[in-house]
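User: I'm writing a tutorial on reading structure tokens. Could you give me a worked example: one chain, its sequence, then its tokens, then a sentence or two explaining what the tokens reveal?
Assistant: Sure. Here is the example chain.
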Amino acid sequence: MSPRWLVTGAAGFIGSHVAEALVARGDDVTGVDNFDPFYGRAIKERNVAGLAGCPGFRLLELDCARTDLPFDGVAGVVHLAAKAGVRPSLDDPAAYVRANVLATVRVLDGARRAGIDRVVLASSSSVYGDATPPPFVESAPAVTPVSPYAATKRAGELMAETFAHLYGTRIANLRYFTVYGPRQRPDLAIHKFTAAIGRGEAIRMFGDGSTERDYTYVSDVVAGTLAALDWTGRAPGGTVRAFNLGGGERVRLDRLIALIGAALQKEPRVERASLQAGDVNLTAADLTRSGAELGYRPRVGIEEGIRQFVSWYEGTHGSKS
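And here are its predicted structure tokens:
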């Protein structure tokens, strides 16, 4: 029989891609999503439209922080549900604690009570803060987060450490580095910039353009996530491991904007603003551990990735939407 996995946040950006990849390789998926109103429900429904009717997939509307999840018959959990975003977390930190800490604890405890010892948790490069020297290695202390979002992600990792120690759970904490690609949330930078430049509108650039990010294409993140899920099947009981999943290149913000403009064949109009509280100056993933233990190798570079994203955007929203 094919294994069945529980995927939380299954109608979201990364979750819908992970669910599709699991079903495509012959596994069964129970997806859950609370359809948080942070952005339109129709967007999430479109994300999972391709899975409709697949015999190995079912989607349940549930809130991980409030409702017991359907763990029966599940071999492992991929917990992707979360409130993402640094700047919104400054406005409502309590909501981030509920969605990213309380929900994670409930997922870990529910899995433990059901006898499930294989868990993949979505964390973030933001846990490294501004004090970690680049490239970021997983053994860095990561004790100085600079936003509530980052603090909640680190708290989830620490709870994973506790559950692995107490109950023998095998857990992979995946530190995603600025994931982009088809279905990216409309509030995130690459999506927002593409939409604005396509409409001929000015975009706001925080800082002088010199901040750098390790942008990671979603197909690479999906490959790393499935590799981590497979890793939990061979890891010793009680093991928790952090893995960086990055794109392998530091990209300046002004270069990113230029690449989007080139893909759209439009000159970006840029308005400068001061750097925002909670933002870090750079992210850069050391991929040594992920490469050695997961076989992770990012395959989509930033130029190809931006071209693919813009092509998806124009095909989905039109060139001037």
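What the tokens reveal: Residues 194 and 267 are 11 Å apart (CA to CA). The two ends are 45 Å apart (CA to CA).
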